[in-house]
Amino acid sequence: MPCDSSIQSVLIIGSGPIVIGQACEFDYSGSQAARSLREEGIRVTLINSNPATIMTDHIVADKVYLLPLTVESIEQILDENQIDAVLPTMGGQTALNLAKECDELGVWERFNVRLIGVDIKAIDKAEDREKFRQWMIELGVPVAQASIANSLLEGKEIAQRIGIPIVIRPSFTLGGTGGGLVFEKEKLDAALERGLSASPIHEVLVEQAVMGWKEFELELLRDAADNVVIICTVENFDPMGVHTGDSITVAPAMTLSDTAFQLMRNTAIKMMRDLGNFAGGCNVQFALNPETEEIIAIEINPRVSRSSALASKATGYPIAKIAAKLAIGYTLDELKNPIIQDTSAYFEPALDYVIVKMPRWNFDKFKGADDTLGFQMKSVGEVMGIGRSFPEALQKACQSLENNATGLSFISTARLKPEELIETLKTPKWDRVFRIKEALSVGISIKTLRELTQIDRWFLYQIQDIVKLEKKISELRHLGELDEELMWEAKQMGFSDDQIAEQLRDCSADEVYEARKKMGIRRVYKMVDTCSAEFEAKTPYFYSTFERPATKENGSTLHG
Amino acid sequence: MSVTSPASTKPAFLLLEDGTFFNGISFGAEGTRGGEICFNTGMTGYQEVFTDPSYTGQLLIMNTAYVGNYGVKKEDVESSSVKIRGLICKNISERYSRMQASGDLADYLRDNNIVALEGVDTRALVQHIRNKGTMNGIISTEFNDIVRLRERLKLVPQMSGLDLSQEVSTNEAYTYGSPDATWRVAVLDFGLKQSMLRNFAERQVYLKIFPAHSSVQEMLAFKPDGFFVSNGPGDPAAMDYAVQSLKDILATGIPMFGICLGHQLLARTQGIPTFKMHHGHRGLNHPVKNLLTGKSEITTQNHGFVVDGTVAAQTPHVEITHLNLNDGTIEGLRLTNKPAFSVQYHPESTPGTFDSRYLFDEFITMMQAHKH
Question: Is the pLDDT of residue A394 over 50?
């Protein structure tokens, strides 16, 4: 299907102020979408109440309205401009809510404006927890077991059937008041009573808590002709129970077999095709039981999101840009991959590197705030590390946190005794990954850590590798003893020159740099090109890493 | 990573035909192996890939940053043994994580006597192959001097003109699935993948798998409702006997379905030539458009030879049904005067998406139509 030529002028709704849980990712997607539409000769009008954004720059849109995100503002814009369609999927939940409100008040109809990229019914189905559950059951997609209870006895029966741990969610309470997690049988009665009395209708949802299951996110694109592609699969380092926004996440998925991945892919496509009219980017989250490899659907978000902004950077595939084109009627098979330019946009990126996203919290600025991580997102931003190995990407991410971490060797918090470490690791906190490293350094076993944190063994092994290498370096007496082999290994595992100097204690980072330069160990630059080097990319971006060069018979070296 | 296991820091080497030399670390069997070098961009399903008979005679580069993370599992195989000739990758996880796994990948490769290298700048290597094209290479844990390696490399045969399918075809005919199933399909085995049989059996098909050199008379004795021609390694231009078998099958008027090598052989029965590609298609993300429905599918591919598109377009009784959205190569065709069709890619996937499984259903429909 070619571009819909009846659309000449589009209104994009921004996401308003930057708050915890909704940061600048929507600025990124909104700007991409505006550029993408203007490429097609479409006039773009933009509304946002936040002037501190890129999207409100006059070069991004044809006309910018810095107005409160209200129905009145929308009416004013529609009054002053000939708008054919509105694209509400680029401004997060704020924009979707405003679009819904305008729809309910008949604003779009009155001004003869079409909603593109999404269907209001689809939003309802995806956002309402109970509607989502019912929809999944009808579709035959497994979800967490749950039932409604109106009495203590009913609640206990359900808990008995599902098995502890469970989540108790009282009906019709604000912000989940009276709800909570139950890990021990002895605490069940009290928790149920608290939940039931908190609910004005004496009703709670008793739900299976899939704590410790692995969590995965799939970023998809769907067009109006029902073509679907998976752009990126992201694995959460932190298992279920920590909000994805507060989880360390990794792309591509590291511990997923093809069988388990295809099951997720098939299920996600089935969900997306059943969603209703939808053309654009979408995010689906799953939990996987590591014991059985069964999966359950957690949620679906029919819009671009924080995760799709990350997936775009992780793969090089500009999701928002393509999503905007799909919203105006293009299909994936008729668009080109913008990074490679002469191959198709209908494809699934392949990565030959590892991406680690780490959240950044600011608990030191919020004195007294509870720093336990859970269902509510608390981070204020995130960093992304790219490397040719997981340790390299993880340590690069740590080095980017701007909190004095030189890698996983975080030094600005007090060291804990082993028993204190075990105690603190029981609860997910912002510094958990650093504490895991500390625990491994003092000899706490992978098995114990796995039981305490439920983090997949594979990630723990990787951190153990970092610990082993760090120990090897710290056992040397001076820089002169650090041989070429070890230097290569350290650099390939993401140790910064600072970090190496810290371990050696007798030299500066500059001296480490000089020493490795003499060994010929220098940064090389690799591409993020969507295709792991299969095609020549025209507009890729680069990251630095360390690779041993290949040689030609004439003695020259070959670098990728 | 070598820190995890000091024993694995044994150096290993790769020399390409054009003289490019890479250092790596050995994590498989000891020895020296030569073959055609190719790369696969898939990020999951390494065990299924390594056991795919179409990789016979090839040194495989895995582009993705890791292999081995989830170990190996007895059931996740496409044939009874590892078929790649050697493996080149960036990182191997010797310690894996999967409760259902039966062991780790490094051990599995050693047990299968496969030489494997990690720590190679695979990205530089892949870029080199992409620019210069497929070539032969040699990997070794024994020799590090270029002169010795080059001597051995000279002995490695060129893939063009090579008939490898006889090496991997079954020696004896055997059956698969339930004899009470609705349909009977005779399979001509040039190196088939197990998941093809599974896909048929799931659709009520009883199969008899025949060696590559079987005659149509032998196969007709099974009273098949259809013929299936499998994938396999090597050059279809070196397989005139197989082209003749396919012509004989077509003459019976019984429906026929071909995958990969089977597709290339079907094209050759119509006089359409096949040729060696610059560096082939290998991965799980190849976009294909079905010209009959207008829908697109993400496909699994593994081929180094391809059907000539220009000739195919001008050949009578041949309709092009599928095209590759990246480079426009032929991905599927059907005959208009016979009940026969074929695809270049792998609808059985494993590893890969389920987007193209409908082709097995279409074959059942074709058999149904033929029967009535």
Answer: yes
ipTM of the complex model: 0.95
Burial class (CB in 10 A: 0-12, 13-18, 19+), A454: middle
Task: Give percent of chain A above pLDDT 90.
Answer: 69
Residue A309 and residue B248 in contact, taking contact as beta carbons nearer than 8 Å:
no
Indicate yes or no: CB of B90 within 8 angstroms of CB of A554: no
Q: Hey, of B130, B149, B325, which one would you mutate to test binding to chain A, going by the most A CBs within 10 A of its CB? A: B325
Q: State if pTM tops 0.80.
A: yes
Residues of chain B with CATH 3.40.50.880: 165-371
Contact check, Cβ <8 Å, B96/A469: no
What is B101-164 written as a DSSP string? --B-HHHHHHHTT-EEEES--HHHHHHHHHHH--EEEEEESS---HHHHHHHHHTSPPSTT---
CA distance B6 to A33: 51
Q: How confident is the model at residue B4 (pLDDT cuts 50, 70, 90)?
A: very low
Residues 469-488 of A with CB under 8 A from B: 469, 472
Query: H or E segment at A156?
Result: helix A152-162
- Choosing from B17, B260, B281, B322, the catalytic residue is B260
d(CA B138, CA B15): 5
End-to-end, the C-alpha distance of chain B in Å comes to 61
Looking up tokens 């006889």 gives: B166
CB of B149 closer than 8 Å to CB of B174: no
Residues of chain B with CATH 3.50.30.20: 3-153
Closest Cα in chain A to B42:
A350
Choose among B19, B23, B351: nearest Cβ to A548: B23
Residue A193's SS3 state is: helix
Q: What is the DSSP string of B183-198?
A: EEEEEE-SS--HHHHH
Beta bridge partners of A211: none
Residue B89 bears catalytic tag = no
Distance CA A543, CA A388 (A): 10
Amino acid identity for residue B178 in this structure: S
Residue of A nearest to B124 (CA): A560
CATH placement of domain B3-153: 3.50.30.20
Domain B165-371: CATH class, spelled out: alpha beta
Rounded Cα distance, A11 and B362, in Å: 45
CA B287 – CA B298 distance, rounded (Å): 5
- CA distance to partner chain A, nearest, from residue B16 (Å): 10
Which of A259, A458, A552 is closest, CB to CB, to B19? A552
Rg (CA), chain B: 21
Interface of A with B in 428-457 (CB under 8 A): 456-457
* Nearest-by-Cβ selection for A350 from B41, B73, B349: B41
CB contact under 8 A, B43 and A332: no
Q: Is the pLDDT of residue A358 over 60?
A: yes
Cβ(A164)–Cβ(A170) under 8 Å?
Answer: no
